[in-house]
Recover the amino acids of this structure.
């Protein structure tokens, strides 16, 4: 049985699109995206989901507050019978209580080689600006499991990306997405879906 995936988003949804492309080309044979949830109003990722025929909802976290958002999110996940949560450019912090109720079932992608350039304030272009300011020659992306310890969680996959002379934060961001994020995230999601499917078969 295919593992049911929910993808949480905040913006344009480029990583979500990479997941849809992987699913539609057969690279996530053990999983199926069944729900997309945006924590911000007007996120283009919601339109991407609808264009692929996937249910999408907006739960504005700023209006609902942390508790209200997580209660509404939990109801959506339960109704969709979700097995695995993927944070794909999701910029809100989930509480330790919420995370602990999904042990080893929340996947996040970060645009650096953790532990470099991660933690509070390191998201989006800020990560790439910091890498350029530091003068490092290599950056990349990391897919990791999320746990209730801030910045904690087991690293699943990492991929290095070279920083080129003349790079701006924008050009570096696009190269990291193209060469690392859009490659690693589908691989990690399939890896976890297959693992969950195997565990389910063993438990029968």
């Amino acid at each position: 049985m295919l593992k049911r995936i929910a993808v949480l988003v905040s913006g344009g949804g480029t990583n979500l699109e990479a997941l849809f492309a992987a699913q539609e080309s057969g690279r996530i044979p053990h999983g199926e995206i069944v729900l997309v949830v945006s924590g911000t109003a007007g996120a283009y990722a919601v339109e991407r989901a609808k264009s692929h025929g996937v249910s999408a909802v907006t739960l504005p976290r700023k209006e609902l507050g942390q508790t209200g958002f997580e209660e509404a999110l939990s109801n959506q996940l339960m109704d969709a019978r979700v097995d695995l949560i993927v944070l794909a450019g999701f910029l809100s912090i989930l509480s330790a209580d919420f995370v602990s109720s999904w042990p080893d079932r929340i996947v996040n992608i970060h645009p650096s080689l953790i532990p470099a350039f991660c933690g509070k304030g390191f998201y989006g272009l800020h990560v790439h600006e910091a890498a350029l300011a530091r003068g490092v020659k290599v950056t990349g992306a990391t897919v990791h499991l999320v746990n209730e310890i801030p910045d904690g969680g087991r690293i699943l996959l990492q991929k290095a990306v070279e920083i080129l002379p003349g790079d701006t934060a924008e050009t570096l961001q696009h190269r990291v997405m193209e060469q690392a994020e859009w490659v690693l995230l589908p691989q990690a999601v399939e890896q976890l879906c297959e693992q969950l499917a195997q565990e389910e078969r063993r438990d029968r």
Notes: Residues 1 and 201 are 9 Å apart (CA to CA).
